[in-house]
Each structure stands twice: as C-alpha cells, then as structure tokens.
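Objective 1.3, modelling of assemblies. Example input:
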Amino acid sequence: MAKEVIRVGILGLGTVGSGTVQTLQENKKDIEQKIGARLEIKKIAVAHPDKKRPVPLEPGWITGDVNEVMDDPEIDIVAELIGGVEPARSYIDRALDSGKHIVTANKELLAKGGHELLTKAATHRLDFYFEGSVAGGIPIVQAMKIGLAANHIERVVGIVNGTTNYILTQMAQEGKDFAEALAEAQAKGYAEADPTNDVEGYDAAYKIAILASIAFMSRVDPEDIHAEGIARITAGDIRYARELGYAIKLLAIGRQENGSIQARVHPALLPFAHPLASVNDVFNAVFVRGSSVGEVMFFGRGAGALPTGSAVAADILEVARNIRFGSAGRIACTCFENKSVIPMDTIETKYYIRMKVSDKPKVLATIAGVFGEFGVSVESVVQKAVPTGESAEIVWVTHQALEKNVREALEVIARLPVVAEVSNWIRVEE
Ligand SMILES: NC(=O)c1ccc[n+]([C@@H]2O[C@H](COP(=O)([O-])OP(=O)(O)OC[C@H]3O[C@@H](n4cnc5c(N)ncnc54)[C@H](OP(=O)(O)O)[C@@H]3O)[C@@H](O)[C@H]2O)c1
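Predicted structure (tokens):
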C-alpha cells in the first residue's frame, strides 16, 4: 500500500537548511497535494542545538545528536545540508545503508565523491538528488538529467559563482579595483571572510565538475579541472575589454570534442552580444548547447537561503513522490563512459594580452615577430597609454592559437629588453 506519510530528517539548519524548512512549511499544502501524501519534518540535527534559528520550528525538531536522524526507522529521506566532505560523506553513506533516500546541496562532496555515493544509492534502489549543489535556485541538474536527456550535449558554459560575478560587476560598473569590490562583497555578506574558494575558482570548478559529468556522461574529477580565479583582473583590463566589445566574466566551461572533454574555470573576455555577458551582480546563468535543442540558457539566483531552499525542497518533493509511487532509484548516475579531460596546453582559443613596453620604434614589430615564431597570429594591437613618455601599455588580441604556443611566446617576450612586463593575459571566448 502506498505510504500516507513521508518523513524527512535534515542534517544542518544554516543558510540552506533554513531556506529549505521555510519553503517546505510555507508551501506545505501545495507540496503535499503534488506528492499525494503528507510530508513531515521529523528531526533536524545541528552542531549547536541551542542557537537561535531564523525560521519557526516545531517543538522536538532540533537535536544535537545526528543518530536521532540516522537511527530513526520512520525517516525516509535525509537532506544533508552541512557541507564539506566529512562528516557529510559518512552520514550519507550510513543513511544509504539504512535504506534512506538522500537529498543534498553539497557541491564539494558531489564533485569529489559523488560517483561512489550515487552508485551505492543505485545499488540500493534509493534516490540521490542534488539540485541545490549547482547554481542554487536554477533547476539545471534536473534540466540536464531529464529535460535535455535525449540530446548529445556539446557544451555547457556557466557563470556559476555569484560572489565573483558581483565583484566583476562592481569593477565594470563602478570602476572599483578588485580589493575594493571584494571588501564590499564581504560587507554585504556575498563573500565569506576567507573568500579563497570563490575568488580562486575552486567553487566554480566543483560545479562544472558536476555539470560536465552529467552532460558528457563521464566522471570529471575536480583535480583535472584547470581553475583560475579573478584576483589578477584589473579595472584597466575591464575598461580595455569594454573598448574592444567584450565583458570579463568568470566562466566555468565544459565542452566535448572528439570523445574528450574540456573542463576549465577562468576569467574570459566574452562579446557583449553573448547572452552570458549581460548576467550581472550575484546572478548565475548556465548556457547549454544540445544536438537537438540547440542553445538553451538558464538564469537565476545561484545562492542564498530561499533560492537554494527552493531547489532542495523540490528534490525532497520529487523523492517523496517517487517513494509514494514506488518509483525511487530510477535516475541513477549516468557516467557510463570514461573520457579524458584534455590538458590546458592543448586548448585553442583567442587571447587578450596586456604588456608594458619601451616607447621606441620597432618594438611592436619585434614582439609580433616572436608571436609569429610560435605560430600565434595577431588580430589587433592597440597602444593604450604613454604615462611617462618612456613606456607604453599595449593590448594585443590574437587569433585562435594553441595555449602552449601562447605561453611559450610570452615567456620569450617577457625577457625582451624592450618589454618592461607582460602584465596580464586573458582568454577570449567567442
Ligand atoms: N549558502 C548558499 O547559498 C549555498 C548555495 C548552494 C549550495 N550550498 C551548499 O549547501 C550546504 C550547506 O551550506 P550553508 O551555507 O547552509 O552552510 P551553513 O550556513 O554553514 O550551515 C551548516 C549547518 O550544518 C550544521 N552542522 C555543522 N556541522 C555539523 C555536524 N557535524 N552535525 C550536524 N550539523 C552540523 C550547522 O549547525 P549549527 O547551525 O548548529 O552551527 C549548520 O546548521 C553546503 O554544502 C554548501 O556548499 C550553499
């Protein structure tokens, strides 16, 4: 007989846990109608049970002992909203052993150990949903797993980190430098006190590892993803890029070509006409190209209590519906293949390169000659400023070139007596 009551245990009641509980409570009637059964929160395990919470709680919900969730045979679904690899991984593992379905928003754990946990869930015919782990409120995981499942996915490119997008937007719109924009993001609660994970691109790398694994049906290990952050982008780069017709965005890029995968995170110049170029502030967007559907873009809030709570609560609803109709465990891991992630040196793209050189005759020709020796052809070169009369700032844009050749050319160019410094180089995505 179909279950009349489905019970949820929650691990963690921080930002996402609170947004999830609020969503489940506020929309309880609609959610239960969609499930066709009652949905009860039975227990919420936290680290500090006496802490004041921002959401109304029923008596008896909160516990400081995770075993009260793990060992309760009435709990059908465990929502892991603690974060980090341990103890989250052990808790999920244990919950699966006890026959509990899993919902999580934990991108780090998914990216590093998702494959094993998903396989275990499938073996036990249990659901394992993780919509909240990528791009918060944007339903991109379900879209890729269900809505676009019949496509061969060629490309998935996203702005998947709201903190860095906010910083870059402030730099572009207000002319702030990186440190000032970061300090403001921290003051507004968009960036953590230690912003390394966001600013260095690690958070985006976890997310593209998850998206690329789904899109290309092959496990992408975050260790194989080139992750480069935005700390070296200056307000000047953003200004010069704008003059050339480009915005600068931190992109998470997954591409599939000839049976291998490109997975990389780095700042990139993006033409203003590209739909991702106008995604500003803390917003996220993911652009997918599929063989049948063509181009699709998803846009919305990529973090925060309620947007992420929306994703987690929807997962809980869907798992509950599967339990109710006896269809749990259908959507297992789809990493059937074993494709390699190609090294950065072998990618081909265009490059924006800014350098300081002596303001003397033939300097440009000398530098262009070195580019030529390495097979890097130049699309345009502009002299931007002559601050003292002795040095000039030059911005080059190359045609498509092999990354290895560009790196090697720049090593030689940096040693030329007429070159004071190679100040920055940024990939250009068309
Ligand atoms: N924040 C976002 O906007 C966002 C967006 C998408 C995905 N995520 C992901 O969602 C997950 C949760 O993030 P969050 O921002 O909600 O974190 P958070 O605000 O730091 O909350 C973490 C919660 O876990 C509890 N906790 C910590 N250690 C525990 C333990 N050993 N046993 C039981 N409970 C424990 C904490 O308890 P106390 O409250 O008692 O200290 C707290 O309630 C992470 O995986 C994160 O990557 C977050």
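The pocket of NAP is lined by residues 11-17, 45-48, 51, 66, 81-83, 87, 105-107, 132, 136, 303-304, 308 (CB under 6 Å).
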